[in-house]
Every structure is written in structure tokens, then in C-alpha cells.
């Protein structure tokens, strides 16, 4: 054990392939859309309900990831994924379709990295040759559950975030040269700073992100400069600002390009999406397209993925509870990535 | 944009001020009756901007237009005026209203020549003014 | 960093709600909706036998119908994003709350979905509308009884 909640992977499991399926809003507004593998013209993705569309996105991403890895479904051993719908039914149905042994994970929007951590553990234990891990969200399906009906006229404040319609799946295998490998994972603690506004989740999640960030760096004995990119999940414009403020107040050097946020960048900082994107699919879609591709191209050699999640339910915030948050971190390295 | 807005605002203001020419028109009655109607309406009211009164046989229809801010107490004004009118014309059946629809309809009565049609119309107006919801 | 320091920092970073601007926008939007309603009412009075007192009902029905179309075409939420309370307070806002919920729950069937959820948001408007009408009527009855005001 390196430190409490920190896992160092000696076998360095690799991410063999990644795939992202997304909806029409992402197609139109996301600067990452060119890197997504499948884009739909309709929110329903040819299905009858939004929940079915949600499930379809996950199924598509699984199939595409296997394809890109040059494998078939019979080569896969596990499916580890999650979403935000009650009881995670879209993931459950998708798991039924694939027929794979399945573990559903719920870490809200941090599911992309917690799934990667779980998959890496399976691989490290020698229990699997290929795990499909990922997360998904569907705007219409999530909004109706957490907020209001889609067509309900409701004035969103500038700190609101837009749930993305996307599913991102990664195929995790034992170590292979030439692919990004998972070196360290830090399992987040649940941090609650007593914030209660469900429309300002970035601010609620920033302390959780910082907590995990500090623990991860301490355990790795690294400085922010050692990473080519430190990318948080869906803090949005406000959460990112707060996270950076906290980091610089604690003596870390915060410099521009290295510090990214998937939620803030997801819609190209378009003001009609307010503070940015959110949702389990947000971090998954960016990590498993832009970040992965840049690692493959060699632009990033060491990346820190920190997906953040707000662990609230519509019930808990209506009862006036605060918003507990978490953040799971995954460190990816390319090539040998000699411990610097 | 600002210029257009300013012009629009000016137009609205002018239109608002131009409305309500303060006239009282009485038709179908004898001259002394007309005077009496005018007296009753004028005596008290700066709340009324204009009025039309029509005598048709035993009926007297009076419609008034009320100043915007007095519209909140329209029912009260109607009640008061009805009482006064009834006092002034004990032989007539007085129908008094501050409703715009009744005003329009009463205003149009003059155009009708035939006694029959006129009578029918008056009955319609009377029933309209009694409708509750 | 402790909670207090953090919540201070959070308040600094979170953009302030532009209250004055929002009030202006709400006033404008609400005003335009009401002006349209007034126009519809005049239409009913001019072309049909409705008086000022009776034209209210068909006008409300028409406004809700317009709100329904706008909601169905996805325009009402844009109006609401601009107008805020200006679009929520008039009867069109009530229509929007009802219809958006009905559209949303169509997939769960007509009885449990549409029927059961239609008034999910609008239900509280009805409950508190009826309740406040009761309270106001009660106060007025008492005042009339003591001769403070007339009916």
C-alpha cells in the first residue's frame, strides 16, 4: 500500500482502445465531436424512449471499443460501467445485451475513472484479459430525473451546467507497449463542504477534486509540472476557477494549458451552455477521445484524469441536505514513462 | 435600435394621451332628457372619459368609459350611476354599463333604423350585460 | 481550507445574478404576454358576443393553447430563459408547466405517465391558488361582517 486509498499498479494495465458515442447536441456544439466514433442525429437515437437511447449509446460504445481493439465480444471478460439514471437501468440493459459479467458502478459523474480503477484492479489481479469500462449519460433522461421536464420554462443561472448525451467506453487489457497504461489510481473520499445549490455543482465538487489531487500527488511524490495534463471531469467554469484557486493557495503552481477541465471545454465555452457540461458521459467522452488520442500521438506522456462526482439525489436536495462530492483520479502514462 | 424604441415609446405615449375625447352623446330622447342625462353624468365624474346614452321606447341604455385607474372600482361606479339614473328617470328601464363590449354595441345602435331590429338589439345588449361569467 | 473560507471564495467566484436586468426582462416579457392576452380578449369581444367580464375564459384557454404550441415546438423554454418570472407568472407559464410534464411522461403511458404526472409541477399552483383564495375570502368575509369594507 502506497498510501490510504492509493493504488499503484505494478503490472500497468493498458487502455487498448476507446470509443465514444454521442448525441446531436454534442455533434453540433462540441469541439471534440470529430474525435467521437458515432454521432446520432436525434436524441432518441432511433429508439422509443430516452432511456432506451441511453442504453443504445452504451451498447454502441462497447461494440466500437471492441472493434477498434480488433476483438470481439467473446474476448471480453467483464463490463464495468455506470450512469446516473435511477438504479442505472441503461447500463443494466446494455449489460444484458452484451451478456458479459457485469458490475454496475455509481460514483455519479466520477464513474469514468472509478470504472477504470476497477478494471485496472481486475487486470492487475490477473482475473481478466479485457475489461470494458466506462460511463454514460443522456441529457433528457438525466434532466427529467434531477431537475424539470425538458420543455419546462425555467431560467437557468450562469452557474448551471448542461448534462451531456454521450457514452465513453475503454477496453482495458494487461500491459501492452504502445498504449497508455494505468500507473496509479487514487480513490476519492467523500467531501462535503455544505453547499446545497444543485445548480452550482461545480462549486460543490471543487473541494473533492482538490482533496484527491493533493493525495494523489503526495502518494506519487510528484509536482503538477510532472504531468503534461491535469484534467478534471466536469467542474465547469466556476468549479475550475475554485479548484485552481484552492491549488494555488496551497502552494501549487497553476499554469494555463496544463490544467484542463472536460466540462468547461466540452461545448467550447459556449455561453448558451452556461458554466459548461456535466454528467457521467462528459468526462468519459473527453478522456476517451481527446486525451487518449493525444497520448497516442505522444503529445501527452503523463496524464492525470480526475473525474468529479456530485453524489446527490433529487430527494436529498429537496430535503435540504448538502451535496456530498467525490473525485477519483487515474494516472496514465505513455511508453515507459520512467518515474520522473 | 435605441432610436426605434424611442419612437415606439413616443407613439404609445401620444396614442395614450389622445384617447378619450370626453364627449357625452345622447340620442333618441327629447332635448330636455338629453340634458338631464348629461347633468347626471357630469355632475360627479372625472372618472368617466366618455359616455353614450340611447333612449329606445321605455329603455334607457347608458354606457360609460372609465379612466384606466378607476377601472378597479368599475363595479362601484356602475352601481352608483345606475342608482342616480334610475332616480332621474323613474319611468325608464335603466341599463347602465362600463363594459367595453356593451359600449361598442350601444354605440352602433344609431346606425339601425328599423324599430324591430333596434328593439331586438337592445334586448341582446341587456342580456349581455347581465351575463356573469 | 475550511468550510467558511471556501464558501466565501465560492461566493466571490460564482457570478452574481443580475437582478436589475432580470427584473427588466421579466417585466418586458410578462408585459408582452399580457398585451397579447389583451389583444386576444379584444378579438373575442369584437367578433363574438363576449363582454369584458365573459371574455376572460376563452382568452385564458387561447393563451394556454398558444403556450402549448410553443412548448411543443421547444420555443417556450427559450422565452423563459430570457424572461424568467415574466413567462412563469402569467397563465402561459401554468400551461407550460402542465404540458411539458405531459410530454415528458408520455413514454410511461397515458394513465400512469401523462395522467399521473401532468400536474407534477402545476399541481402546487392549483393547491396554493385554491388555498390563498380561501384565505382571502375568509379575511374579506370577516371584514365585511365587522363593517370595515363592503362587498
UniProtKB/TrEMBL annotation, chain A:
GO molecular function per UniProt: acyltransferase activity
Coiled-coil intervals: none
Top-rank taxon, per record: Bacteria
Transmembrane segments: none
Signal peptide from the UniProt entry: none
InterPro entries named among the record's database cross-references: SpoVAD, SpoVAD_sf, Thiolase-like
Pfam families linked to this entry: SpoVAD
Name this polypeptide is given: Stage V sporulation protein AD
Organism whose genome encodes this protein: Bhargavaea beijingensis
TrEMBL record, chain B:
Superkingdom: Bacteria
UniProt signal peptide: 1-21
Keywords assigned: Signal
Name of the protein in question: Sporulation lipoprotein YhcN/YlaJ (Spore_YhcN_YlaJ)
Organism: Bhargavaea beijingensis
TrEMBL record, chain C:
Transmembrane regions listed in the UniProt entry: 26-48, 54-73, 85-103, 123-143
One Pfam family hit: SpoVAC_SpoVAEB
Entry-linked InterPro entries: Spore_V_AC, SpoVA
Keywords annotated in UniProt: Membrane, Transmembrane, Transmembrane helix
Cited NCBIfam families: spore_V_AC
Protein name: Stage V sporulation protein AC
Species: Bhargavaea beijingensis
Phylogenetic classification of the source organism: Bacteria, Bacillati, Bacillota, Bacilli, Bacillales
Amino acid at each position: 500500500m502506497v498510501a490510504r486509498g492509493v493504488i499503484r499498479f505494478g503490472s500497468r494495465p493498458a487502455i487498448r482502445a476507446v470509443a465514444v458515442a454521442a448525441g446531436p447536441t454534442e455533434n453540433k456544439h462540441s469541439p471534440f465531436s470529430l474525435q467521437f466514433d458515432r454521432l446520432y442525429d436525434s436524441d432518441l437515437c432511433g429508439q422509443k424512449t430516452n432511456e432506451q437511447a441511453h442504453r443504445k449509446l452504451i451498447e454502441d460504445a462497447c461494440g466500437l471499443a471492441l472493434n477498434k481493439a480488433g476483438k470481439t465480444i467473446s474476448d471480453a471478460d467483464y463490463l464495468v460501467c455506470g450512469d446516473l439514471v435511477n438504479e442505472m437501468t441503461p447500463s443494466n440493459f446494455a449489460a444484458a445485451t452484451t451478456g458479459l459479467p457485469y458490475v454496475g458502478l455509481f460514483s455519479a459523474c466520477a464513474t469514468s475513472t472509478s470504472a477504470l480503477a476497477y478494471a485496472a484492479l481486475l487486470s492487475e489481479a490477473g482475473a481478466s484479459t479485457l475489461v470494458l469500462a466506462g460511463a454514460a449519460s443522456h441529457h433528457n433522461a438525466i434532466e427529467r430525473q434531477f431537475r424539470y421536464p425538458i420543455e419546462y420554462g425555467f431560467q437557468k443561472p450562469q452557474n448551471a451546467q448542461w448534462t451531456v448525451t454521450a457514452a465513453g467506453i475503454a477496453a482495458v487489457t494487461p500491459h501492452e507497449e504502445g498504449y497508455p497504461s494505468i500507473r496509479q489510481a487514487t480513490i476519492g473520499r467523500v467531501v462535503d463542504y455544505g453547499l446545497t445549490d444543485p445548480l452550482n455543482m461545480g462549486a460543490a465538487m471543487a473541494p473533492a477534486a482538490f482533496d484527491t489531487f493533493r493525495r494523489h500527488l503526495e502518494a506519487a511524490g510528484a509536482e503538477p509540472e510532472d504531468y503534461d495534463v491535469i484534467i478534471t471531469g466536469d467542474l465547469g467554469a466556476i468549479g475550475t476557477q475554485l479548484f485552481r484557486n484552492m491549488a494555488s493557495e496551497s502552494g501549487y503552481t497553476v499554469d494555463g494549458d496544463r490544467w484542463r477541465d472536460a466540462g468547461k471545454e466540452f461545448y467550447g465555452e459556449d455561453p448558451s451552455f452556461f458554466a459548461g457540461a456535466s454528467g457521467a458521459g462528459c468526462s468519459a467522452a473527453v478522456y476517451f477521445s481527446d486525451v487518449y488520442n493525444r497520448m497516442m500521438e505522444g503529445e501527452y506522456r503523463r496524464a492525470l484524469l480526475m473525474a468529479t462526482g456530485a453524489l446527490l439525489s433529487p430527494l436529498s436536495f429537496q430535503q435540504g441536505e448538502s451535496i456530498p462530492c467525490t473525485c477519483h483520479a487515474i494516472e496514465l502514462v505513455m511508453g515507459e514513462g520512467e518515474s520522473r | 435600435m435605441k432610436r426605434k424604441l424611442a419612437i415606439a415609446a413616443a407613439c404609445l405615449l401620444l396614442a395614450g394621451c389622445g384617447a378619450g375625447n370626453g364627449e357625452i352623446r345622447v340620442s333618441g330622447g327629447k332635448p330636455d332628457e338629453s340634458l338631464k342625462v348629461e347633468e347626471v353624468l357630469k355632475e360627479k365624474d372625472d372618472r368617466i372619459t366618455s359616455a353614450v346614452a340611447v333612449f329606445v321606447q321605455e329603455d334607457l341604455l347608458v354606457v360609460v368609459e372609465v379612466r384606466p385607474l378607476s377601472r378597479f372600482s368599475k363595479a362601484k361606479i356602475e352601481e352608483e350611476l345606475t342608482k342616480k339614473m334610475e332616480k332621474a328617470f323613474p319611468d325608464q328601464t335603466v341599463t347602465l354599463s362600463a363594459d367595453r363590449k356593451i359600449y361598442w354595441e350601444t354605440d352602433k345602435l344609431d346606425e339601425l333604423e328599423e324599430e324591430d331590429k333596434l328593439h331586438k338589439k337592445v334586448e341582446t345588449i341587456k342580456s349581455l350585460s347581465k351575463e356573469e361569467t | 481550507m475550511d468550510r467558511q473560507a471556501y464558501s466565501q471564495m465560492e461566493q466571490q467566484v460564482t457570478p452574481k445574478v443580475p437582478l436589475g436586468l432580470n427584473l427588466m426582462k421579466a417585466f418586458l416579457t410578462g408585459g408582452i404576454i399580457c398585451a397579447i392576452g389583451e389583444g386576444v380578449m379584444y378579438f373575442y369581444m369584437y367578433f363574438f358576443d363576449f363582454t369584458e367580464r365573459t371574455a376572460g375564459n376563452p382568452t385564458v384557454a387561447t393563451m394556454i393553447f398558444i403556450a402549448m404550441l410553443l412548448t411543443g415546438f421547444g420555443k417556450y423554454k427559450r422565452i423563459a430563459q430570457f424572461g424568467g418570472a415574466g413567462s412563469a407568472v402569467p397563465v402561459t407559464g401554468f400551461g407550460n408547466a402542465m404540458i411539458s410534464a405531459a410530454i415528458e411522461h408520455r413514454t410511461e403511458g397515458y394513465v400512469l405517465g401523462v395522467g399521473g404526472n401532468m400536474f407534477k409541477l402545476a399541481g402546487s399552483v392549483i393547491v396554493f391558488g385554491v388555498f390563498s383564495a380561501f384565505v382571502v375570502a375568509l379575511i374579506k368575509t370577516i371584514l365585511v361582517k365587522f363593517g370595515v369594507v363592503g362587498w
